[in-house]
Amino acid sequence: MVASKGLTYQQALQNAALYLEQNDKSPQGAERLLLDRLGWTKTDLLMRFTETISDEEHKQYLSDLNEYIAGKPIQYIVGVEWFYGYPLKVTEATLIPRPETEELVQRALAALEGKGPQKVLDIGTGSGAIAIAMKKERPQDDVTAIDISESALAVAQENAKQLHAEIRFLKGNLLEPVQLETFDCIISNPPYIGEDEIHLMDKSVLEYEPHTALFAENNGLDLYEKMAFELPFYLKTDGCLFMEIGFKQGDKLLALYKQAFPDKTVTIEKDLSGLDRMLIVK
Known about the structure:
Function: Methylates the class 1 translation termination release factors RF1/PrfA and RF2/PrfB on the glutamine residue of the universally conserved GGQ motif.
CATH superfamily of the largest domain: Vaccinia Virus protein VP39
Enzyme class: transferase
CATH topology of the largest domain: Rossmann fold
Structural class: alpha/beta
Radius of gyration: 21 Å
Catalytic activity: L-glutaminyl-[peptide chain release factor] + S-adenosyl-L-methionine = N(5)-methyl-L-glutaminyl-[peptide chain release factor] + S-adenosyl-L-homocysteine + H(+)
Protein name: Release factor glutamine methyltransferase
Strand order of the largest sheet: 5-4-3-6-7-9-8
GO molecular function, one term: nucleic acid binding
CATH architecture of the largest domain: 3-Layer(aba) Sandwich
């Protein structure tokens, strides 16, 4: 890319898009890197298109572009990902929140619509994405979030503070920190990728995202099996459960959770890509 001398933001963006294309990366990444680093909206950028980018900003932009070309996810470069309309800090201690998980939150919110204050539990909160979205959308609810990783919890707590979401964060494995408690709604996006699926994964995910939040034993089913017969003791009689699952796990988990919840309706629902992605118990 050319030096920043006299470059406008528009020219810098155009050069960056071409630079990415020449290096076999999506040119759309150029705008995302610029906006998130500057903390701008698209409107901000349009309003300042003809202004000159500073040397310092251009130097940072170049560095970000080169990291992206080298394979680092944009979210880890700029330290931000948007989830359900909220900006979340992400680090390599946390998974990058995905659109499929937004669908899970959407289903949970729909199930709670019109209900009074609820007790909500998020198991394996990571960046705090699910818990924060639930609390922001339903401020009246009492939300608890659990994670086994101290570093992930620190990120989640920072996100909650920044977004003014009052959430109880607990460190521990699965349901251990909330023994003897019951909840109206339990949501979880546990590690569900089996070793047999590693070859399907993007290189940047394998190199940068925390493996403990991605992979589970027994073809990715380990944590679902551990929780299956514990969850009924933590879910209120009229409560609901929402879990994100791997696209190959629907049939096995449907059978397992029907056995665990014989008096409830258990369904597997597809994401917008048409893949089995959600286990729902009502």
